[in-house]
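FAQ
Q: What does a multi-component entry look like?
A: The components come first, one per line:
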Amino acid sequence: MDIARIRDQFPILKQEIHGHPLVYLDSAATSQKPAAVIEAIREYYEHSNSNVHRGVHTLGSRATEAYEGAREKIAKFIGAPQPETVIFTRGTTSAINLVAHGYARIVLQPGDEIVLTMLEHHSNLIPWQQAAKAAGAKLKYVPLQQDGTIRIEDLDAVVTERTKIVAMTHASNVMGTVNPIKEAARIAHKHGAKIVVDGAQSAPHMSIDVQDLDCDFFAFSGHKMCGPTGIGVLYGKKELLEQMEPVEFGGEMIDHVDLHESTWKELPWKFEGGTPIIAGAVGLAAAVDFLEEIGMDNIRRHEQQIVNYAMDELAKVPDLKIYGPKERSGLITFNLGNIHPHDVATVLDSEGVAVRAGHHCCQPLMRWLGVAATARASFYLYNNEEDVDRLVKALLKTKEYFGHAIG
Amino acid sequence: MQLDDLYRRVIMDHYQRPRNRGKLAGDAVTVELNNPSCGDRITLQMDLSSDGIVRDVKFEGEGCSISMASASMMTDAIKGKHLEDALEMAQDFSSMMKGDYKEFDYEDIESLSGVSKFPARIRCATLAWNALRKGAEQRQTKA
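Then the predicted structure of the entire assembly, as C-alpha cells:
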C-alpha cells in the first residue's frame, strides 16, 4: 500500500492546524473523504440530480440508476445475496432503530429477553432499552473479561430460550475488541434468537461477508468509511425484512393508497419513505469503489501495522494507561496519568494532533472501566508511522506541560 | 495558539486544591448537572437563607481542569452573596465566554477569560455556572 499516494487523495489532510501539519487520529468518529467521493457527489448534482423512481425524463432515469446502482454495489461489498436486502438509512443509529421498531416490536413478548454486551455504543443500547420497555421484555448483558473481550461460553450461558434478539457490536469503538460474530450467530440461532450486528467500526476496516457471518441484521454508516454523512445501511435477511412493518410512512414507500387503507411497496422500498438520500448513496458507492481498489484486506493489514507500531511507541510514554485487548482493531483508547482527557486533547490539538476525548457514547462501559472519560486515537488507511510519532511527541509535551501542575 | 492562555497558574491551583469541595448536611438546594457530550458532571449544593443569601455552598464532581477549577472559583465567589448578585455574576461569566472583557470582585475568575479562545472548552467552564442557574430556578419553583 502506497500511503503517500493514498494521503495525496485526501484534500483535508493537506492543511496545518495551529502551525502544524494536521495529524488526524479521529477516524472512528468520522473518516475523511477522498477527492473521488467529493467529486462523485459534485458530479451527481451537476449532471444527474433528480428524484428517483418517478421521473419519466432522462435525469429521473439517471438518478434512479445511480441510486439503485449504489445499492447493488454496496450489497456486493458486504456479500449480501440480493440488492433488496440493503436498506438505505441515515446511518447506523437509524438502521438499528429500524430493527428495534420494525422487527423487535413485532416479535417481543412480555418476559422475552434481549442480550447485549457491555461494549455497546449508546446507538446499540438505547433502541433496545426502549423496545424492551415497550414490550415488557428485559435486557441481559454478557460480562466482559478484564481485557475487554467477551467469552463465547459466557454468551452461551446468558442466551436462553426466552432470548429473541442478541445485539452485538462487531468492533468496539472504545476497546478495539473485535467480537467473534460468526460464533455468536451460531449461539443465537441455537437458542432460536436473531443476531443484530453493529458494524459501524468494522465495515470501514475489514472485509465483511454477511452470509459467512450468518448475521440476521448488519448495520453500518457511510461516513466512517470515506463516504458522506447522512447515509448508512441496514442489511437484513430477506425473510426477516419481509416480516417487518415499515416505520416511516409517506411517499415513495407505497403500493396502493386508498382513503382508509394503503399497501406497501416490496423490499427494499417499503422502508425508504420520502425522497431518499440519493447523493449520499452515490457518495457511498464512490467510497466503496475507492476502498475496493485498495483492497479491504490491505487496509486491515495496514491498520494492524500502524496500531502495533503505536502500541510499541506509546509504551515509551510514562504513566500512559491503555485500555482493551492485545488483539484489536485500529484504535487505542488511553488515559495519561491523572490528566483529564479533555486537557490531553486540547494540548494535542495545539500540536495539530486530533484525537477524541470523552465517554465515546459508551457511558456504561466507562463506568465498567471506572473512569469518567478517556482519550482515543483511531487510525485509518491514510495514517502513517509519522502520525504515530507526532502523537507520542505531543503526549510527552502534554506530560511536561501538566507535569508540574498535576504530576 | 497559546496553551498558557488557557491554563493559567491560578486555574491549575484551583484544580489541584479545589475550594468548597464536599457535601452540605441538611436541607440544601441540590443540583446535579452533567455535560452529556463529554461526561463531566457536578453536584452543587447551596444553603440559602430565607432572604436569598448563599450562606454556604459545596460541590462535588468529575471533570477536566477547566470545569473543576471553574466550579471551585464560582463557589468561592458566590459564598456570602445574594443569589441575585450570584446570577448577575453568572451573566457576566457568559459574556466573558463570548469574548467580552469583564471584571469580577473575585479576581481569579478573570483567569478563565482565555477559555473563550478555545470554543470546544467553553462548555467545560460554564458547567458549574449552569448548575448555579438551575439551583436558582429550583428555589423559585419551590417558593
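Q: Is there any commentary attached?
A: Sometimes. For this entry: The radius of gyration of chain B is 14 Å.
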